[in-house]
């Protein structure tokens, strides 16, 4: 299944332009983080990051919000499961 279709299916968002943009941004971030050219072996991570980006739209990284105490928490970076995937590739291929 095409990456864009995977993101649409997971998020429920069908905006082609938005999905294409977040996938392009995810691929660029992966390349920058790994200091390598993008490769299709990173596709799973690109989908995960794109889904994260789509789901964060309008929330700007908000992870929790309390109303009576006016408390808010923000997400810092990627979730652990994405970071672990990125670091695995970085260790394996980063020295090339």
Description:
The model has no long low-confidence stretch (mean pLDDT 83). A hairpin with a 4-residue loop joins strand 1 and strand 2. The protein has 96 residues and is mostly helical.
Keywords:
single chain; 96 residues; mainly alpha; two-stranded antiparallel ribbon
Task: Classify the secondary structure makeup into a structural class.
Answer: mainly alpha
- How would you state the average pLDDT, rounded? 83
* Helix content percent band: 55-70%
Q: Within the largest sheet, what's the order of strands?
A: 1-2
Strand content: 5-15%
Distance between the termini: 30 Å
N-to-C order of helices and strands: HHHEEH
- Total strands: the figure is 2
Q: In a nutshell, what does this entry contain?
A:
The chain is mainly alpha-helical.
Topology (elements, then pairings):
Blueprint: H1 3-11, H2 16-34, H3 43-56, E1 62-66, E2 71-74, H4 80-93
Antiparallel strand pairs: 1-2
């Amino acid at each position: 299944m095409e990456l864009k279709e995977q993101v649409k299916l997971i998020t429920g968002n069908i905006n082609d332009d938005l999905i294409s943009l977040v996938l392009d941004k995810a691929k660029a971030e992966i390349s920058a983080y790994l200091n390598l050219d993008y490769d299709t072996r990173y596709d799973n991570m690109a989908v995960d990051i794109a889904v994260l980006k789509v789901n964060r739209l309008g929330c700007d990284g908000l992870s929790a919000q309390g109303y009576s105490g006016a408390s808010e928490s923000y997400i810092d970076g990627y979730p652990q499961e994405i970071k672990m995937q990125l670091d695995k590739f970085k260790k394996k291929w980063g020295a090339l």
